[in-house]
Amino acid sequence: MATGIREAILSGEFVPNQRLVEADLAERFGASRAAVRAALLELANEGLIERVQNRGARVRAISLQEAIEISELRMVIEGLCAAKAAERVTEDGVRLLTEIADDMRAAVAAGDVFGYSRLNERLHRQIREISGQRTAAGVLERLRAQSVRHQFKLAMHPGRPAVSLPEHLAIIEAIRDRDPEAAERAAREHLRSVIRTLPEADRTRPHGNGLAP
């Protein structure tokens, strides 16, 4: 139940400040009102929705300042994951990262913003898997979900793929070289770039959702 609502928020079907009516959700997902209430409580604990007195639940709108703070926290955690990935990467992991790097270069060369963003998300997920940091991975997923609208604006910001590509390639190279310090440094620099760009990207008005920076 919570998974279905969460996916609707991440896909942009449910937008910030949209009311979530228990009866409508119960009908849509074929669930009881009790199951809906439990799911909404779970998502409220994740920071995806908020309960408004006498008005029920709505999708929580994340401010620019919150998005920056989330990115600052991601900078620390993703740096840790990159360092651990550099320590633990196998030859299969190196091969997968190399394939992603090649595909990212091709997407940027072709101007495929959506394809590049999907590869971007795949890369970050692969690094988390290689790192073996399951707790960190769970935290990062919740943080990503909370700031998904700002991430989409950033992904759509003109010229962003050309900026983030070398940043991602630097992370991949450090992990393939099994250099934890360089991997953490590259991951942190990527998130610093995100933080610098967020205010400008926040002024754009993209259509759709589901992309990564």
TrEMBL record:
- The HTH gntR-type domain is annotated at 1-62
Region feature (Disordered): 194-213
The protein's matches in Pfam families, at most eight in alphabetical order, are given as: FCD, GntR
Q: Does the keyword DNA damage apply?
A: no
* InterPro entries linked: GntR_C, TF_FadR/GntR_C, Tscrpt_reg_HTH_GntR, WH-like_DNA-bd_sf, WH_DNA-bd_sf
Source organism, top-level taxon: Bacteria
Arranged from A to Z, the UniProt key words for this protein are:
DNA-binding, Transcription, Transcription regulation
Q: Which GO terms describe its molecular function?
A: DNA binding; DNA-binding transcription factor activity
What is the name of the protein in this document?
FCD domain-containing protein
Which organism does this record belong to? Actinomadura physcomitrii
